[in-house]
Amino acid sequence: MHSRSSSRENSTVDSTLYSPDVDVSDIDEKRLMRKVDLHVVPWLSFLYLLSFLDRGTIGNAKLYNLEQDIGITDKQYLIALTVFFFPYALLEPASNVFLRRVKPSIWLSTMMLLWGIVTVMHGVIKDYGGLITVRVLLGATEAGLYPGIVFYISSWYKRSEMGSRIALFFSSATVAGAFSGLLAAAIANMDGIGGKAGWQWIFILEGLFTVVIAVISYWAIQDFPDDAKFLSEPERVFIIRRLQADMKLSAAGEKFSSKYVWQSLADRKTWIASEDFHFALGLFRRSSGIQSGNLHGLVRS
């Protein structure tokens, strides 16, 4: 009786095993995951660095007469900073729905291409209306990057491994802050070339660089483990099996279900993370000169 039960259990395991005919006994797990790290994490970190570089460029442009050239006040400048976050917050959750339907190499690269173009457009604006428009567009086009990268990482790593990888790519934002000012100062020396101000060249050159990297990303970003070109068939099978063992399937094979949305909304960790974001936004407001009284004035205006 016991042997029959064991046989049925083994049969169930074998039937659910991904590609059971593939032998993965020779795979060195640590070596394989180092290989995955080298192909996945560095490029994602670079994309996130460019994201923070482009969204923060407006601060450097302000130092080189942006306000005076397009005729805006400090208050209008602060409004332009604030409107970035409205489309960013609204569209961020929807990104991964599209990422499930489109390959990461297509979705993330296209998103980057669009925000690169929008960054270039910052360099040709003439008035306050133009500034508001490009800031809203930038928020919309950058919105899906962070959740998209986190979701993409989850399709490669077990839950216990994700924290360190997310921390690595997230830390690239601090690198952007470290040298963005120096880069802007160098580009600002082009003031007057082609009849454009230094702040315009900051937007144009940094945006064009993002566009070039976006085009390269169509080939540089690997898709899901199921069809990763840098892995052999046994290596692909091994990664998917270890995700299955971690109670996860390859993201390429998952189907969207609304119940997961409601589960995330009911999870207290979602709301704790939301509070952390609001705290970070508060720090941003103070560092950008947006005090509570000013913010109330912005809303009234």
UniProtKB/TrEMBL annotation:
User: A cellular component term (GO) from this record?
Assistant: membrane
* Subcellular compartments: Membrane
Q: How is it placed in the membrane, per its record?
A: Multi-pass membrane protein
Q: Which residues form a coiled coil?
A: none
Q: Where are the transmembrane segments?
A: 40-58, 78-99, 106-125, 131-154, 166-187, 199-221
Please classify the protein's predominant subcellular localization into one broad category.
membrane
Q: What PROSITE patterns does the database record attribute to this sequence?
A: MFS
**Do the record's keywords include Transmembrane helix?**
yes
> Under which name does UniProt file this protein?
Major facilitator superfamily (MFS) profile domain-containing protein
- Source organism per entry reads Panaeolus cyanescens
Phylogenetic classification of the source organism: Eukaryota, Fungi, Dikarya, Basidiomycota, Agaricomycotina
